[in-house]
Amino acid sequence: MKWSYLPPLMVYAAYGVSGLTGIVGTFFVKDYLDLSPAFLAALAFWAGIPWALKMPIGHVVDLIWRWKALLVWLGAGMIAASLLIMVGLTTQMDEMRGVMSAERWYVLAALLAPTGYMIQDAVADAMTVEAVPRVADAQLQKSMHTTMQTLGRVAVIGGLALVAAANIYVFAGTESFPKERKLELYADVYTAALIIPVLSVLGVVLHRFLKHEREVVEKTHPNWTVLGGSLVFVAITLAVSLGGLPHAQEIIFTGSFAIIVFLLWRLARELAPEARQVLVATALVLFVFRSVPATGEGTTWWMMDKLGFDEGFFGQLQLVTYALTLVGMFALRRFMAQNSIATIVAVLSVAAAVLSVPIIGMFYGLHEWTAAHTGGWVDARVIALINTALESPLGQIAMIPMLAWIANSAPPQLKATYFAVMASFSNLALAASQLGTRYLNELYVVKRGDYGALGELMIAATVLGLALPLVVVAGVRLLRLRTA
Predict the structure, then answer these.
(1) What span, in angstroms and rounded, lies between the C-alpha atoms of 109 and 74?
(2) Is-contact 461 293, C-beta < 8 A?
(3) Rounded to an integer, what distance in angstroms lies between the CA atom of residue 70 and that of residue 64?
(4) CATH superfamily of domain region 3-210+223-478
(5) Among candidates 203, 51, 53, which has minimal Cα distance to 113?
(6) Based on CB atoms within 10 Å of each CB, which residue in 6, 259, 425, 447 is the most buried?
(7) Where are the domains of the chain?
(8) Residue bearing the bigger pLDDT, 379 or 481
(9) What CA–CA distance (Å, rounded) separates 240 from 247?
């Protein structure tokens, strides 16, 4: 691995380490905040909106390339502010409530962090292109970009695996702790997470001291269509969200989708016709794949209350997930290199549907039946671990070929812009997923302690998760479009 690869990998690793607070956040919300699964799905929608702004931020990175470190510092400040809010809520909640409600503080923290990570991610994406030297051999060039993007996913997943192991250590033997003692542990975790912004800043500091083999590229000029369209997007978002309009999320999503598709179309004109077709088909398939709805927080609460899963066991599940994801990304590298994204998405959709069956089965008593017939060996935890082990390598696979294709095909002077365009589009798909999740939770209402509708909710999410991607893949194949 080249030393030039290290700075962007450090920024990616910082994003991975952010998973340190995932488990404590889930338990804190359940035990201390009066928020419903539908509200949390709506909050996840708003938290995803900053990622739709990655397109103009990516263009800004291209415009101020020499000063990109300042953007990483800005993102680090926002991440630190979010973490300090959570430290305050877990140590000085009464004082924090004297300013505004704990729920509002939590919403503010939940919006600050993704904005900071998005800014840093836009810089890191462009740094991955700079880190790979240009060579005459096109196949070797593509292989090097694929390796760089794979290492980027490894840095993220490696960070997640590291903090999953840390969560297992922190919460080992805490099952009998009173809520007050667990709250102290939550505060310790949020305090330790302040290392995250430090790690990302160290990445750009290291980048400054390394020598890079830079090619001479055309100077980047402002694309006023991108910047102007983004300003319209921000104005619509602020006006609708602060104005309290009904169906605000739907309005913002529709407006965001229209603006981003328009900007994508304008930028696609920089590509050759064949590459433009690949970009459009790839974007369509990945959008639908990432926009399928999930079941929401109700499933996690059910696992806590009915299956007895605690913080330590959720840490074990995360560790299994991320460790096997790392293995899977290398083991399946040939599969990623030799198949189109359309094929990969179809395979992943079928696999996800099959692997959701055991979890649905446990809602209807599968774990009780298996435990009774195996002398208690195959209980809910064993089923969850086996299911997680089988499912874990699949999550990151679809993104790697797309990232490698962008790195290899984007105009050198617009590297950050093209990464950001596809990231904005794919993250808008996650916003669509959160909208769908909210709709499903409003149709199948799940409350704390009342999980009667959860089985139907899980079945509906599984059917949609299988059907929607397969339909769009079939459409792409019928139209004879090619994906990356």
Answers:
(1) 16
(2) yes
(3) 10
(4) MFS general substrate transporter like domains (1.20.1250.20)
(5) 51
(6) 425
(7) 3-210+223-478
(8) 379
(9) 9
